[in-house]
Design goal:
By secondary structure, the chain is of the alpha/beta class. It contains 20 helices and twelve strands. The strands form three sheets. A six-stranded mixed β-sheet has the order 6-9-10-3-11-12, sandwiched between helices. A four-stranded antiparallel β-sheet has the order 2-1-4-5, covered by helices on one side. Strand 9, helix 18 and strand 10 form a beta-alpha-beta unit. It comes from Trichocoleus desertorum GB2-A4.
């Protein structure tokens, strides 16, 4: 049992690699017309290289020794034409194969990005952005280096190798046999180093992902790191991850450094053997000088393809490790699937009901338990409670970022699992506490959810959101370019732009996560006024951190440990003198009053 373990593990690794390679080769299907052309060019290039030494050896025996100068000149002209044809074919094969591979890799990148966009929110709860970027950039780049840049050489040298072997045995069987005795040693050497390299290159791909994640985290959190005096600690943590990546790559390079000299040694050994035995045959008259010369040329050509193929093999180990990580990502279950008979969500009137809803991010731990609520069209529902109580989960269920574990979420009496996600979400607007703006113009950011909106529609939404006056004061107005995350706008200005974004899609249901925190008093007044306009006539769910902002709510739901423990208007809950009244009194620093 113990001895069989490594064998089984090796077989599983080989099977996994073969499966990965087969899956990668499926990307060649759209180029089935171009591939035969590329292979033909490869074959022509290989044939021209294989025939050259034979013609040189023949010329020595039949033209040079015989003193046939005119015949030699004709042979030189023929060799020139053959090599010109070969160079042209090789250049064509590199261009053709490169054209195919770059489009193939472009499609692979597109598939990764498309997959990332379609993954469920739960996937990002457990994944790091830097690692995902590493798969899209570093892993694909490794595949590009192995297959995109050297695949043409690899194919050409494979064809050349077969052509050289055939030519060798055709000219002199004994010398051909002697030359090929080094092949088993090369296969053994390559296999030995490949098994060693495979694990190392898999580690390098993982450490590069960890390094990218740590780098992305360090860049985005530099302000917090400086504010909390964690700069030195962050540098030390990055140093550990960086050292792990460095050590993994050093070990991988060490394998290559040991492998290539081994191949060179076998090359030299085989050349010496052919020279010794070929010289003996020439002296004894069993072989001509031309044959020995041709063999020496063939031996040099014979080991060059093997050396290149061996180098490619080690590069392929790194590429296959990267492909494994890529395909693991592509195999992740996509976003919640629409039911096979899902229909379009009718125009929403605004009634939202939770019927005995239970939900857990894992089956063993429920976040929501027996939640009942009903929001009438146009009502404002405030969700209050401590961090982790389940407020954001309720919002996520309305948007159907997750499916309920038990019960049902219904809008206008329709179970949201029975309609398409796209038709549901296009009628729901959301303004978060920390809204994300994107690199692009102000107009593009406002029209993020309505990319086909006219300039007039964008400006009307901005006016309703109290951001129009500010935007037209910018150097290029609505065409002003914003940087990453909306720089250089302030927090309050970003909030106003995000409110304009919600206004533009004209949602029937609106979700607000306290939109007035961390902004100055003047901007807060603008935001509050914009929100009041936005709420008018719409059903809204407001996650309230400051209770003073929800005193006008039609319903206040107090949530603790995944359950609604109190509900009513602000006045009703104050009169009850319960949890909400105590929270309100604590925030205002005074006794609660209705």
């Amino acid at each position: 049992m113990t001895s069989a373990g490594p064998v089984v593990a090796a077989e599983q690794k080989a099977s996994r690699q073969l499966s990965t390679l087969q899956r990668f080769l499926q990307y060649l299907r759209p180029y089935k017309k171009e591939v035969p052309i590329a292979l033909l060019l490869v074959a022509i290039g290989a044939a021209t290289q294989s025939i050259g030494p034979f013609l040189i050896g023949w010329s020595i025996d039949n033209l040079i020794i015989q003193g046939n100068l005119s015949g030699l000149l004709l042979m030189l002209a023929l060799l020139a034409l053959i090599y010109i044809l070969g160079i042209t074919a090789i250049r064509g094969q590199i261009l053709r194969v490169g054209w195919i591979m770059q489009r193939l890799l472009g499609q692979l990148r597109q598939d990764i990005f498309t997959k990332i966009q379609s993954l469920p929110i739960s996937f990002f709860d457990r994944s790091e952005a830097g690692d995902l970027m590493s798969r899209l950039l570093n892993d694909v780049n490794t595949v590009n280096q192995a297959f995109g840049q050297t695949i043409a050489q690899m194919l050409g040298n494979t064809f050349s190798l077969f052509g050289i072997i055939i030519a060798m045995f055709s000219i002199n069987f004994k010398l051909g046999l002697l030359s090929n005795l080094a092949v088993p040693l090369m296969i053994f050497t390559t296999s030995f180093f490949a098994r060693w390299a495979r694990a190392r290159f898999r580690v390098t791909r993982q450490t590069i992902g960890d390094l990218s994640a740590k780098l992305e985290e360090g860049i985005t959190s530099v302000r917090e790191a400086q504010a909390f005096n964690r700069v030195e600690l962050n540098i030390a943590e990055f140093d550990l991850v960086n050292a792990a990546n460095r050590d993994a790559n050093v070990q991988a390079v060490a394998i290559t450094a040991a492998f290539l000299p081994s191949i060179d040694f076998l090359n030299t050994l085989a050349t010496a053997a052919v020279l010794a035995y070929g010289g003996y045959l020439a002296v004894t008259g069993a072989a001509t000088v031309g044959v020995v010369t041709a063999f020496l040329l063939y031996v040099q050509q014979f080991f060059r393809p093997i050396q290149i193929l061996s180098q490619f093999y080690t590069q392929a180990q790194s590429a296959l490790a990267g492909l494994e990580r890529i395909f693991l990502l592509l195999d992740e279950p996509s976003q919640l699937q629409d039911a096979p008979d899902a229909t379009e969500m009718p125009p929403i009137q605004g009634e939202v009901a939770f019927e005995n809803v239970a939900f857990g991010y894992s089956p063993s731990q429920l976040v929501l338990k027996e939640v009942h609520l009903c929001a009438k069209p146009g009502q404002m529902i405030a969700l209050v409670g401590p961090t982790g109580a389940g407020k954001s989960t309720i919002i996520n269920l309305i948007l159907r970022f997750y499916d309920v574990t038990g019960g049902a979420v219904k809008i206008d009496g329709v179970d949201i699992r029975s309609v398409t996600q796209a038709s549901l979400r296009r009628q729901i607007g959301i303004v978060l506490q920390d809204n994300i703006l994107f690199s692009g113009t102000v107009a593009e950011n406002i029209a993020f959810g309505s990319p086909h909106a006219t300039q007039a529609d964008i400006e009307a939404a901005a006016q309703l959101a109290n951001v129009h006056e500010f935007v037209i004061s910018l150097p290029q107005g609505y065409s002003t370019q914003l940087g990453e995350r909306g720089a250089p706008l302030s927090q309050g200005q970003r909030q106003l732009v995000s409110i304009a974004r919600a206004v533009l899609i004209n949602p029937r249901i609106l979700i607000l996560d306290e939109a007035t925190s961390s902004i100055d008093t003047r901007t807060e007044a603008l935001v509050q006024d914009a929100i009041a306009r936005l709420l008018k006539g719409r059903t809204s769910f407001v996650i309230a951190h400051r209770l003073s902002t929800v005193t006008q709510a039609d319903q206040v739901l107090v949530i603790q440990q995944g359950q609604i423990v109190e509900s009513g208007t602000h006045a009703e809950l104050i009169a009850q003198q319960g949890i909400y009244a105590n929270l309100y009194a604590l925030q205002l620093g005074a006794p609660a009053a209705a």
